[in-house]
Amino acid sequence: MQLYNNLSAKERAELIEKAGKERLTISFYKYAKIGNPEIFRNHLFLAWDQFDVLGRIYVANEGINAQLSVPAENFEAFKNHLDTISFLENVRLNIAIEHDNFAFLKLKVKVRHKIVADGLNDDSFDVTNKGIHVDAEQFNELIEDPDTVLVDMRNHYESEIGHFKNAVTPDVDTFRESLDLIEEDLKEHKEDKKLVMYCTGGIRCEKASAYYKHKGFKNVYQLEGGIINYARQVESKGLDNKFIGKNFVFDQRRSERISNDVIANCHQCGKPADLHTNCANEGCHLLFIQCDECKEKMDNCCSTNCQEIIKLPYEEQKAMRKGQGNSNDIFKKGRADHLPFKKDLRNIFDTLKPQ
Ligand SMILES: [Zn+2]
Ligand SMILES: [Zn+2]
């Protein structure tokens, strides 16, 4: 069953039947010029609300980035509506491997400056001059090539729980940092190496590949539809799976398992574990990996300090948080020094540097 680009009527019917009354978890993006994102946003919200779509959708002058869930029985209507929008006709839908009816709880369609916070000045390079898109089969071949450097375009907390074998996984908090780090590391190999990149659903590579071509890299490739689509193709076409561990996703599910390998460790006791959690202390909210035993022992907290705080009356906790920074730093704080088994990914990057 091919689940990207056009789903045939038969494939759609199969998908809906298989899901039964369940919701399907879907993501897609498209770079396109949108003149009035506000009007487009309202149009989407009114239409999708009727289909009981839930999710987080960003709309900007540069396009749309959507992560959502839709009841299986409304999938057909949803897809038909997408096809009425010229630049979304037959857009590739990344359909999740593991569905969760609670992946999203609300429909939020937001107008943003950009659909991905990439930190790039798009006027400085041609964003349409992208890398070569490869499917799972081509990707598997490419990464066996000794001249290939395979780069994970995601952040440290994503690659920590799962990545492609032999991928370079930069120890970065942001996409922008990653771009510079990789360029610096590969500056001697702009012409002789093949730069092959991947991310969750492909959106980050759309910009990254254009950026690297602009920076003089001659052979730039990107995994079409990212890890989500790769996993689907591996399954449907019976290909070799080169991805180990879990794919980090940005909804309540947190991740989807792609292989049975557990490649990360509990940040508190060091035992194999790959489940991200947020510290139960709302004033901390640190994102970290915690095993079931530590979860119980620590009351889902990252430290004894936080454990003490959550025992205080709620009003007192609120008073303590006053004037503190916002919790958007949660991923950064994932590096917190008090976690004894936080992995140092920088070492991985050094050892995998091409010779
Ligand atoms: Zn533990
Ligand atoms: Zn904490």
Automatic annotation (TrEMBL):
The keyword Amino-acid biosynthesis does not apply. It holds the Pfam family Rhodanese. Signal peptide: none annotated. It catalyses: uridine(34) in tRNA + AH2 + O2 = 5-hydroxyuridine(34) in tRNA + A + H2O. Its EC number is 1.14.-.-. InterPro entries: Rhodanese-like_dom (IPR001763), Rhodanese-like_dom_sf (IPR036873), Rhodanese_C (IPR022111), TrhO (IPR020936), TRHO_N (IPR040503). It is an enzyme of class 1 (oxidoreductase). Transmembrane segments: none annotated. SMART domains: RHOD. Keywords: Oxidoreductase, tRNA processing. HAMAP family: TrhO. Catalyzes oxygen-dependent 5-hydroxyuridine (ho5U) modification at position 34 in tRNAs, the first step in 5-carboxymethoxyuridine (cmo5U) biosynthesis. May be part of an alternate pathway, which is able to bypass cmo5U biogenesis in a subset of tRNAs under aerobic conditions. This is tRNA uridine(34) hydroxylase. The gene is trhO.
